[in-house]
Amino acid sequence: MEMGDIDHTNPHTDEPFVETFRRGQDDEEGTIEGVEPETMEDVVHEAPTDGAKRTFERGNEGRDETV
């Protein structure tokens, strides 16, 4: 199977996926009125569930299967 064989259409909008991640909305000056900007220190850097954490673990110690 190749990437061209996979359907890249959003099932809810029937439009192709163009971007996976997007930046937040900013005005011309880089801020949104009434919204406090987050710093890297403010951002949570851990997955909310254990399922995603395995994706980012390095090595294979303690794993029975590959990700």
H/E element sequence: H
Number of strands: 0
Task: Please state the CA-atom Rg, rounded to the nearest Å.
Answer: 18 Å
Morphology: flat
Q: In percent, how helical is the residue content?
A: 10-25%
Distance between the termini: 19 Å
Largest sheet: none
Low-confidence runs (pLDDT<50, min 5 residues)? none
Query: Which structural class should the secondary elements be placed in?
Result: little secondary structure
Overall pLDDT, averaged? 68
**Percentage beta strand:** under 5%
Helix and strand arrangement:
Elements: H1 50-56
Describe this structure as you would to a colleague.
The protein is largely without helices or strands and 67 residues long. The protein contains 1 helix and no strands. The chain has one helix at 50-56.
List keywords for this structure.
67 residues; little secondary structure; 10% helix; flat
Quick rundown:
This protein is low in regular secondary structure and 67 residues long.
